[in-house]
Records
---
Amino acid sequence: MSDLFLTFPRDFIWGAATAAYQIEGAVNEDGRGPSIWDTFSHTPGKIFNDDTGDVADDHYHRWKDDIALIASLGLGAYRFSIAWSRVLPQGKGTVNGRGLDFYDRLVDGLLANKVQPWVTLYHWDLPQALQDEGGWSNRQTADYFADYARITVQRLGDRVKHWITLNEPYVSSFLGHHTGVHAPGIRNIETALEVAHHLHLAHGLAVEAIRSAAPKTTQVGITLNLHSIHPASQSEADLQAARRFDGIQNRLFLDPISKGSYPQDLIDFFGRRFPSIGPDDMHIIQAPVDFLGVNNYFRFVIQNDPDDPDLRLREIFLKEREYTEMWEIYPPGIYEVLTRVWKDYGPAKMYITENGCAVPDGIDADGRVRDYRRTRFLRDHLFQCYRAIGDGVPLKGYFVWSLMDNFEWAYGYAKRFGITYIDYSSQKRTLKDSGAWYSRLARANGFDLNETEPFFPR
Ligand code: FCB
């Protein structure tokens, strides 16, 4: 073993993550109701290649194989999401027992293989029936979410010890309601802000619902996508633009949950466009959580832009930097996020609930998938996580995105994030090199920074 072997803290959790609509398929089976992602993906022109999640990874039928895969990797945890419209096809009202049965079997199967289930309740797939009543711009959706949380926890809470209320409320609110590139495809900044507030309420109400339905030791958290944000220059205008974007991306979500208030600079900037807040709202939203889940993929470089009507800024791309198929590779960003959140908000525990990248890959003639760039991406980000832990950040686990290639939202199947390759015509799963490396790391609870062949060819 070289002296550059980095060992993670004892009990550090190594996992992999997925989400319901991205992998399950079987959209019309066992009483599942449609979600906004069914509607959106079936609207021509919304998704690259007009792909849909109708079949995806066919995980709904292949879940046993997928559990065997997770177990074979030696992972201690698996983060997946529950499709609200399998449990409540209309989003509220009649419970669909067969939907819950699926997750019941999944949870038991994971536990039988010594894999801890980490369950996300909302990974963007709002039941379409609730969208028909206004979706997240309807405040009542928050109450329906809490009901759904309670019903689900009543069924699974004796075995699931980690619950995540929402995945990336920034993305559901702003990509769904401001840029409109995600379901339900609305483009209105005021709606996006209102939706963000209702998502916060949904989170707070669900935390209470989960706690009342689950055993005392149950851990409840939320997953936010948090970014390192750099100004394009040191000009006052760019510095302010970067600060504004940090407000929208990071503080709009961190502040209410941890401090019970919205950032004053954003309230001032948006003025009358900022949603009205009910007297008890902030108290509900600030319900104490046990951990903060952080999804981190890339950083933003932000420039002032007077022509942008809503936020007066734009993202810029730097020629000299390396990009994946989606985003810039900037490993120190994950360190910057972890240390900043810890310093400014002091969460008791943090987990990286997603990190990974889309790079072109494919199966070679010898059957191997040599996704060197992904392996390097993971190693370089984990090195930065290791640094953060060394600084005292209470980072307790890491979940790679993703267990397998899947439906990447507006990009359809064109972007592959998996450590397992999916052949979508045969549904065959093939572990990539990055998966073999990650599995070894999980078993050894660390990795060798000096390593070369076969995972890091010179
Ligand atoms: C995150 C999402 C996840 C996946 C990755 C690439 O924003 O939570 O579902 O699409 O990005």
---
Amino acid sequence: MVEQQFGIEKDTKVKTRLVRMDEQHIDAALVKEAGDVIKAGGLVAFPTETVYGLGGDALNPLSSAKIYSAKGRPSDNPLIVHIADMGALDAIVREIPDSAGKLADKFWPGPLTMILHKSEAVPYETTGGLDTVAVRMPVHGVARELIRAAGGYVAAPSANRSGRPSPTLAKYVIEDMDGRIEMIIDGGDVEIGLESTIVDLTAERPIILRPGYITRQMLEQVLSAVEEDSTIMRDDSGQAPKAPGMKYRHYAPKGDLTIVDGTAECVVEYINTRIAMHRNDNKRTGVIGTDASVKEYRADVCKSVGKRSDEEAIAKELYRVLRELDDENVEIIYAESFDTDGIGQAVMNRLLKAAGHKIIHV
Ligand code: TXA
Ligand code: MG
């Protein structure tokens, strides 16, 4: 009891309240309660259009510390500050460059995060010690109302324990966060399923640090030239990614994951040969395939991420499939490779990271 009162004991359990609220049925009284939890320094997980976020007061250093502890995340990995209105931006950044104004006009609210120079209002605890701050204005109705109710600035990483895939359903938030945070808002499944695109506007040229639903081509329709961090699709050993969080082997399934790239027939044949071999070693195997191919595989657990031609659906299903394979305790996983058009680049970026860049061309 005493420990609970003072929040000293690391493993002290918090009673987590679970509420349901979707965009069509916003309950103002409940939103206010959730906002009050954040204002008082507590944590609330909530739905956004990308993945579920774990929200705390971005301007309160103690809240950021709590977020790191609930996630089991290193505190040099900065948090994204979520705002609900353009007017809120002024107070947290040193200046709003033209490029940011243009991108905000076109893509906010939405799945785009911009890195800008931070103002003194943002504590270093939130930015992992950096002089820059990541800012995003989500479009999800529940997220926006919650941000407003919480005072306008909500720091929110994805609501998973560090090293697990970002949650696309409230049940995964419950799995990872029950007993660690004050409240979880279940808003049903998310729309996109992969985290926002991050673009750094503090360098000479805009540079994408993390690919997402908003692609380079889309950004280049607004800003003439946009670069990409070289670590997005390659394992540039020795080269540190510019988004500190991208260096961690995120999204890592418990099983050892290898991507197999090639013609449909060769991929199935190669994977099935490997699976037969692992079976002789008594290893439990899993496959990530597509609707057309999944029945061809002989693994213990075969999962489809959907239709190969529907990259948006694949983006939405990928983290669910990775979690399900974890739950099945598979030891060896093979995944098909996917096109890198549109959001496909973000899919392959997350898959390559999950595989520690192990990809075989057959
Ligand atoms: O879609 C999203 O962005 C979700 C939802 C909840 O909004 N949030 C999310 O947050 O993905 P998180 O913490 O899981 O990922 C934030 C990424 C990390 O890779 C971090 O290193 C990078 O953003 N980041 C944050 N601030 C940064 C900064 N000032 N400079 C460079 N990278 C930064
Ligand atoms: Mg994350």
